[in-house]
Every structure is written in structure tokens, then in C-alpha cells.
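Chapter summary example.
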Amino acid sequence: MRQIDPAFTGQPTDSKAHKAVDPAPTRWQYRMERLWLTPMFRAMIRTGIPSFGFVFLFTWYINDPVRIAAMIDWYEGAVSAVQDRPEFMVSLLRIEGASEDLQDDIQEALPIDLPLSQFRLDMGELRSLLVDLDPVLDAEVRVKSGGVLLLRVTERTPAVAWSYDDGIEILDATGQRVATLSDIESAGGLPLIAGEGAEKNVPEALTLIAAASPINDRLIGLARIGNRRWDVVLTGDQRIALPEDAPAAALDRALAMNAAKDVLARDVRVVDLRLPGRPILRLSQPARAELKRLQDLERLSLVNTEGTQ
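The structure predicted for these 309 residues follows.
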């Protein structure tokens, strides 16, 4: 096609209008687009800088003791407003399974000032304080409906009264202390044990006490000798000395001897069974004197008989 000369139409010519436009970006635009395509740069722009700005402004804002105190007071007030609501308050204390003396000890031992929000009660700590009490074997702590703090305890069962140099204590079947007594009369009908190490051998002592049931009416208690063995202490200042090994079997032999020969009804002070198969009877002082008198009479009778012959 033939081009028409602009001058022929009478219109002015513009060299810029006929200049071609370059579609390529500038160098700066190119670099910025390449930089924006970098994942780390995008993450810094979208997340890093706003986060840094927030942390900077927050740090600047709270870097003031007055503001910090106000924030703490506001938080504590909000928490207290929820925790101290009436439906969360504990106002009553109930103790089950404990004697009157133990109930008094529990109330003295537990740092509870009612009414108190149940959110401020540490159930684990309360249970630990209960179990740490000597008479308590186990304990359960929970909050019941109606704002009642329930303490259900299981008391240790007294088994023996242990007499030692510093006093008298009640022990359970495992040797755990239950209570301290002021005098031996307060032990009531509990079996008595005495001596160093007796509290560590309560199960064995209970076995011997059960084996001694045929002479229970004469049984006073057991004495631990040298922290090695037991003596059975009876009325009338009598004792049965048991060996270190198999004391229950030795006690059964002593009771069999008594059943056959009525040994304990005689003037015998000690039935010594420490030597296996060789029981030794130790007489009382009057019995020894009487025996010596009889032996002297027998010798004198023999001398007179030989003289007459």
C-alpha cells in the first residue's frame, strides 16, 4: 500500500508519536521484581518486619513499671473475679474415717482457711500433708458439690506398744509409728515389745505372740535382746529365751514341753532354747537353794549308809 505523506494532508508531524515504546522494564524495576520473587524477602516483608515492629512497640510500651503494675493488677483482678465466684467457693470441711484426736491433728496440720476458692486448693499437697501424719495410712482429698472439702482418711491399726528408752509408742503391723503414749497403762490390751530394734521386727514379734496363745494369760510381752533375738517375758519373772534362727519353732517346742511336763508351773526362771536340741532350765534362787539342800541331804545319806556298812 502506498503511504500518504503527512505533509500532503496538511497535518503537523510528531516524531515522538512515531517513536516505538520499549516494553522491557527498567533496570531498577527488574531488580525489584527479581527480589520480590525471593521467598526469604517476601517472608521478611510480610512477616518479619511487622513482627519486629510489633515486638519493638510492645517492648517500648511495657518498659514502664507503672504500666507493668497496672497490667498485673488487671490480670489478677480478672482471674480473681472468676475464681472467687460463689459457685467455686469451698466453705465447709468434712473429715471421714478419723478419730477425734486425729481430726484435731488434721485441722492443725492443714493450712486451710475457709471459705476459699477451690482453684486455690492444691489437692496433691493436702493429700501429702495428710499421709505424712503418723496415724494416717492413706487419704483421699476432693471437693464435693455444695462447697464441701472432703478429707477421707484410713487410719493405721495399732498392733503393738513399743517401750524404749525415750518413751512408749504405738506401732502398726509394719512397725510404722501410730501414736506416742505417756505411760504403759495407756496401751490397754496391746501386746508389748521392748528393746533396741524391736520396732524393725514387728511382723516377727506378732508371729511369736500368735504362737504363744496357749499361755496368753501369762504373756507380758517380748523383749529384743542385742537386736538379734527375742525373749518371751511371762508373769512370775519367767522368760523363754528363743534362738536367733527359727524362733517360732523353738517357742512351739517350749510350749510342748510345758504341756507335757508343766515346766512353766515349776520354779523355773528361764527356759533357754538358744542351743538347738538342748534346752536348758534355769531355776530360781529359792529353787536352787532347795535343790542344793536336797543334794546335800542325799550325799549325807550316802555317807551314813557307807559308814554303817
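To summarize the output: The chain has a mean pLDDT of 82.
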